[in-house]
Amino acid sequence: MKKTVATLGVLAISAGAATAGGIDRSGQFMGVLFEKGNYAELSFGSVSPDVSGVATVFSPTSGAASGDMSKSYAQIGGALKFKINDSLDAALIFDQPFGADVSYPAGSGYYAQGTTADLNTSAITGVLKYRLPSNISVYGGLRYQTFEAKASIPFVGGYTVNGAKDDAVGYLVGVAYEKPEIALRVALTYNSKIRHSLATTEFGGPSPKTDIDTPQSVNLEFQSGIAKDTLLFGSVRWVDWTAFDISPATYGVITGNPLVSYHKDTVSYALGIGRKFSENWSAAVSVGYETKMGKFSTNLGPTDGKTSITLGATYTRDNMKISGGVTYVDIGNAQPTLNGTLPSANFRDNHAVGFGLKVGFSF
């Protein structure tokens, strides 16, 4: 029960993380590191946001509707975890930690019509965990990450930018406390920022390299048995979005502003309950909340905060477990701006639906 329901809880939290603030996608959770023995897993997620707004009188196209500017996207992940001896474990984790998919419909009459943007990352993380006396463990590792991005913004003089794929390395460190007899685990993880320097072209011509730091973050993950076959689980994630900035050189000269930046960090919360119903079946429900940044949003990401609910189930047989979940997200209202002082649009009553599937094997 403890292992099965705990895995379902991690899936529920991860499904909500895929629609988190800024460009956060995977949540960078470390649950796989605490699987027993040797273990492998593959995961797939699909997120379908619906984000639209209406231009205000402070834009050149007052009253025009943007149409749905957010594209659906998929998330994949995988991990291998090995027990080296009674004190030492190792894991290799693949995820897609950050991303963005923007496409304002053409022909809508909205000032940002035809604007597109894509940002893609992937990461491979190697982690070692060492168990100390008194149920405490420490862990750390290196993360190899790739980053690429491009955008086309017709309403800024036909601006285009392409940042070629760059790779860089960061690190993580963490500490955990476990009490297996009651399925208690508390894990605290620090993820470092990772600096990328992207070879950049603007308006189709060469431009100076663009330095981008994917943000540092701190994750607190916890779980505990609260009754027979019942588990309480949750997480808190802080992300240093105020340090994230994409500022191609020519775009800054034209507008006097970064292409993408955030003025406040985010904190995301998740809390849920899992229950085992038979030797094969478990289920869980969780709710999530993310703090608002406030002020104006970027035109490439007109959302602010979220609340969510996730339902999931796990089927276990022999050494295999299959978990699936669905998340509904109420996306917070936002106001982008064109001049930094007045709102250019109102984005309200938006939402997203996410699906997740994970297959795990113990060996």
Automatic annotation (TrEMBL):
Q: Which family does it belong to?
A: Belongs to the OmpP1/FadL family.
Instruction: Kindly list the GO CC terms recorded for this protein.
Output: cell outer membrane
Keyword Signal on entry: yes
Do you know which Pfam families this protein is assigned to? Toluene_X
Any one GO molecular-function label of the UniProt entry: long-chain fatty acid transporting porin activity
Q: How does it sit in the membrane?
A: Multi-pass membrane protein
Per the UniProt entry, what species is this protein from, by scientific name?
Rhodobacter ferrooxidans
Compartment annotation: Cell outer membrane
Lineage at the top is:
Bacteria, Pseudomonadati, Pseudomonadota, Alphaproteobacteria, Rhodobacterales
Which residues belong to the signal peptide in this entry? 1-20
The molecule here is called Membrane protein involved in aromatic hydrocarbon degradation
